[in-house]
Amino acid sequence: MLRVRLMSSGLLVLTLSAEEFDSLTEKGGNSDAQLSLPTDLSLVLLTYAVPEADCLRKLSDAIATDDEKGVDTFLQKPYDPNSAVMDVACLTLAAYHGSLKSAKLLLEARAHVAGGEREGMSPLHATCHRGHSDFARWLLESKADVAETFTDGRLTTAALHLACARGHLELLEVLVDGGADVNQLPPGQGSLRPMMIACAGGQLEAIRFLLKCRADIDCTSVDAGNEVSVVQLLVEAGADKEKATVSDLSPLVEVVRSLVGAGADIARRWRGPDGMSPLHVACSSGHLEVARVLVQGRADLTTTASGSTPIQLAEAYGKQDLKVSVCSAPEPLGPPLPFSFLTADSGD
Length: 348
Fold this sequence. Notes:
The protein is mostly helical. Among the domains are: about 40 residues, no CATH class; about 80 residues, Alpha Horseshoe (Serine Threonine Protein Phosphatase 5, Tetratricopeptide repeat), CATH 1.25.40; about 90 residues, Ankyrin repeat-containing domain (Serine Threonine Protein Phosphatase 5, Tetratricopeptide repeat, Alpha Horseshoe). The chain is about 45% helix and about 5% strand. The strands form 3 sheets. The chain has a 3-stranded mixed sheet. A hairpin with a 2-residue loop joins strand 4 and strand 5. Helix 3 runs parallel beside helix 5 and helix 14 packs antiparallel against helix 15. It is elongated and about 95 Å long.
């Protein structure tokens, strides 16, 4: 028989038979000490000490350098493994730095794998923000929620969105293997799907990976935008229309060309039935090559948005050269533009 009493009062808090004790040990026992029954144990309940600023600074330095000894010294005081350093949970800080040894100590001490109850970025979000694929894999193995979302006050994202924004291919593979939804649309006004995030960042490898995972190229955002409307997102993100890649096209043009070639809807309006089409956006922003790709994909030059055609918008915004070039664009292509650019293996 095992009896456990509070040392302070002698109150009996637990009684286990030998059979019950053995059963619990088999299910998940992991003890540093061996018990021989029968025995009485005295239980001492300790509250966590409150760390001072200098102690938290040392902890922050230890986590940043993945100093196991420094982190263990903190935990042995004992201090709460969910303590915040500059309002960031310890495990989230370890995730940000990719400090896996420190993180394992924190989790062993019962740190919350989701980052605790305080608002802010979860450990999984933090490690995806920094591109630490090994750390992300460990978090998922430790039961982190791959679908958990975080709001920065402007946009709501899941971990997969952050990986798409930065084009971390290995991290994308880890998250999808861990059950991430390639078409996930987080709650909240203005939220976007992973494909739109990858397009807005011009992350071509991420786009290729999402398509291989059967991401929907015509899925909508909560504002009813689709992936060809990424022209608007790319422009708002400050895409450089002059910067060319090895294919002599900017990432902006390559993304739009590939989506048009995949059969995405180029007539879809941005935010409402009288909103701008992708061609309106390209013309008003001076993105000549994007406009030419859309025209070759049979975009309608006569459609109006708030009473203006794409060419009229180009004139209104002083894009006279664009007007001439678009009107002299090659004849519309018969078949869709080739899609081999995104579906080919990266080694080709």
